């Protein structure tokens, strides 16, 4: 198989898509997690500053809270991103293939498939986001992931883990509806041969992540407030209430706090996610195809070796002809018949004296026999007294 024939490989395996998606999700969030922590800090209502930048926020975080502070809560992402992205990509690929059977409008197909995938993804990732963002906040009172999860459950109930679910859907459905078509657009533009091309996958993923994250930042700011509940446990209950509080606190520009950090986080993160996903999908699919082809080739080779033997055996058993050996022997037999006929010694059995049964015929023997028969058949209309091989009375 040509390793470049990527798109011709089967991609309908749900297990392959889910495995590749899980690995891609974990890689995406873990590698870029410090920038995600910076973005959450910059979106905080209690610590909004006009001159906040990515570098100043990161520097203050490390100076005041330690070198590893930007990675706090990363294990919540590992626990949530793996299964969430597995179902995310699995649902997207399955939906895209299914809808494609009934509609040839690619962009609509991508958007609908992305929306369906988001519904599944957010149902799993939302509780992990709540725990992660509470651990990322300034002066977080939680010691660990389990401590945070238990405290939130005891004080606010199970509903607290899904308080921002509707907001996250409102944000992530358009986010995915922008991301997936943008990715597919750049794939078709830059990868016209439909080959496995890591640089194109990274570029298309980065462009898709940058566009989607920039356009959905205001909703992300509202989601952060709903997840962290900085103004008190359970006081902010919905998207509209969160938007009002952000506007009263920081005005219109408050909805774009952390925009640069979000774009700088999502652009490489999405590039890593898509390139990792395509890589593992390619590796897993190629391995499965290679195993099938290897088994098929082995079976075909064995069959090819055995078949000629059976065919040869059959031909050898059937190859028994009763033909004149050659023209010379036939003439000698005819001469013998003429002499003995004159002496009155011919008989019915003597007429077959020039014939014998052959167990097999070589190429030369068959050729000679065919030549003699052809000559004999061409002289079939010659009268008996002119034919040199006829017995005279």
From TrEMBL:
Biased composition (Basic and acidic residues): 349-358
Predominant location: mitochondrion
Solcar repeat copies, ranges: 12-98, 105-189, 196-283
Recorded GO CC terms: mitochondrial inner membrane
Region annotation (Disordered) ranges: 340-360
InterPro entries: MCP_dom_sf, MCP_transmembrane
Record PROSITE patterns: SOLCAR (PS50920)
MF GO annotations: ferrous iron transmembrane transporter activity
Organism superkingdom: Eukaryota
Pfam families reported in the protein's UniProt record: Mito_carr
Cellular localisation: Mitochondrion inner membrane
GO BP, one annotated term: iron import into the mitochondrion
Keywords for the protein's UniProt record, in alphabetical order: Ion transport, Iron, Iron transport, Membrane, Mitochondrion, Mitochondrion inner membrane, Repeat, Transmembrane, Transmembrane helix, Transport
PANTHER family named among the record's database cross-references: MITOFERRIN-1-RELATED, MITOFERRIN-2
Family membership: Belongs to the mitochondrial carrier (TC 2.A.29) family.
Record function comment: Mitochondrial iron transporter that mediates iron uptake. Probably required for heme synthesis of hemoproteins and Fe-S cluster assembly.
Protein's name according to its UniProt entry: Mitoferrin
Organism: Aedes aegypti (Yellowfever mosquito)
């Amino acid at each position: 198989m040509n390793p470049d024939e990527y798109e011709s490989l089967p991609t309908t395996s749900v297990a392959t898509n889910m495995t590749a998606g899980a690995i891609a999700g974990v890689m995406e969030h873990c590698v870029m997690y410090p920038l995600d922590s910076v973005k959450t800090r910059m979106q905080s209502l209690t610590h909004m500053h006009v001159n906040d930048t990515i570098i100043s926020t990161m520097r203050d975080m490390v100076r005041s809270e330690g070198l590893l502070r930007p990675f706090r809560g990363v294990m919540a992402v590992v626990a949530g991103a793996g299964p969430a992205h597995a179902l995310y990509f699995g649902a997207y690929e399955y939906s895209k293939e299914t809808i494609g059977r009934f509609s040839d409008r690619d962009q609509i197909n991508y958007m609908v498939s992305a929306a369906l995938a988001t519904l599944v993804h957010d149902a799993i990732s939302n509780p992990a986001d709540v725990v992660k963002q509470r651990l990322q906040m300034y002066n977080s009172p939680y010691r660990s992931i389990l401590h945070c999860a238990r405290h939130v459950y005891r004080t606010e109930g199970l509903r607290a883990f899904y308080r921002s679910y509707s907001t996250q859907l409102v944000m992530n459905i358009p986010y995915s509806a922008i991301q997936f078509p943008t990715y597919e657009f750049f794939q078709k533009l830059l990868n016209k041969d439909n080959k496995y091309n890591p640089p194109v996958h990274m570029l298309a993923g980065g462009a898709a992540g940058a566009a989607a994250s920039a356009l959905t930042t205001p909703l992300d700011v509202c989601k952060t407030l709903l997840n962290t509940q900085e103004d008190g446990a359970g006081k902010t209950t919905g998207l509209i209430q969160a938007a009002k509080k952000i506007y009263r606190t920081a005005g219109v520009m408050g909805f774009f706090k952390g925009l640069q950090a979000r774009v700088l986080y999502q652009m490489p993160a999405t590039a890593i996610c898509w390139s990792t996903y395509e890589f593992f999908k390619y590796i897993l699919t190629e391995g499965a195809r290679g195993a099938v082809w290897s088994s098929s080739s082995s079976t075909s080779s064995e069959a090819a070796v055995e078949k000629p033997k059976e065919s040869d055996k059959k031909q050898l058993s059937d190859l028994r002809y009763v033909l004149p050996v050659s023209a010379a022997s036939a003439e000698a037999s005819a001469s013998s018949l003429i002499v003995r006929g004159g002496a009155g010694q011919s008989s019915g059995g003597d007429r077959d004296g020039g014939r014998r049964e052959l167990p097999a015929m070589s190429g030369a023997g068959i050729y000679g026999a065919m030549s003699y028969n052809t000559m004999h058949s061409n002289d079939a209309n010659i009268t008996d007294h002119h034919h040199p091989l006829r017995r005279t009375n």
